[in-house]
């Protein structure tokens, strides 16, 4: 066998991963801060609030209940609502809405109960950023506890989030270095240096590797962690999160209107109770609303007090008007629903849904 030919045989190398720098500092870089011993990079869940040192404010009894009567809409309002609905449909004829004879209008009491619990939760994690001269205060004194750090509370019942550097936890660490060698396997020859037989790969000039595009052919790139500064400021980051936790209950109604339609409309507010913590309802004429209030108040206070601090609760009862309208047109009986303060219409069996003609 020709030994020269043996020497020139292509040698295929297994694919080699692109050389890149680390994407996060090593865990050993983070100090063990008093009061934050369990803090890790990436966070470790929400921290339960401390027990109050003073008795929590007790909920106050709800105000006297108003009248729960439902108003009825007029025949003109029902007809105008249907006309507006038909006008929004490109191929609906307005004839049934204009000329149909309304034979019956039936109102339904439908209540929606909603409980909102506005909470504040806190979590901590080690974080870092390139050091450019920021304040370094680690071990200057004991850092305050995560629930002792003041934060600006937003408007109640609106979600929000705030990030705070925990005082006396910031220190400077030497990073990995300014640049990393950065090449990757040639995609043409797969690192073998040859294309076919004894032909050297022209794409990588027979090296088997090529410089990556991010380093512009220089063979190295800037460190992603320190942005080339070679120093990192590491600190404990406190995340304060305010959340409006809301649950609703809609009384089952027998009108025939789909319940999911009611989520798109508002109702007449009959009752509102806002306190630090609310009492379950009592004395409401629909017992299912009373039961829903008792269940949700108990669930919210038991659930959210474990991992967060309850700042405020409110319970609201809306009356959502629903009117079932029966009308005749061309000798046939049809129905539609008018519902919500917006007088929305549901008319699945509208008798003239296409007025288009083919010329």
What is the topological layout?
Blueprint: H1 3-7, H2 75-87, H3 95-99, E1 101-108, E2 111-130, E3 160-165, E4 171-174, E5 179-181, E6 183-185, E7 209-211, E8 220-222, E9 231-250, E10 268-275, H4 287-304, E11 309-319, E12 322-329, E13 332-339, E14 344-346
Antiparallel strand pairs: 1-12, 2-9, 2-11, 3-9, 4-9, 5-8, 6-7, 10-11, 12-13, 13-14
Description:
- By secondary structure, this protein is mainly β.
- It contains four helices and 14 strands.
- Strands 2, 3, 4, 9, 10 and 11 form a six-stranded antiparallel β-sheet that branches.
- It is flat, with a radius of gyration of 35 Å.
- The protein starts with a helix and ends in a 13-residue tail after the last strand.
- The N terminus is likely disordered.
User: What value does the Rg take, in angstroms?
Assistant: 35 Å
Biggest beta-sheet profile: 6 strands, antiparallel
| Terminus-to-terminus distance | 86 Å
Helical region count?
4
Low-confidence stretches: 1-19
| Alpha-beta content class | mainly beta
Strand content: 25-35%
Brief characterization of the structure:
This is Protein SSUH2 homolog. By secondary structure, this protein is mainly β.
Features:
four-stranded antiparallel sheet; 30% strand; flat; 359 residues; mainly beta; single chain; 11% helix; 4 helices; six-stranded antiparallel sheet
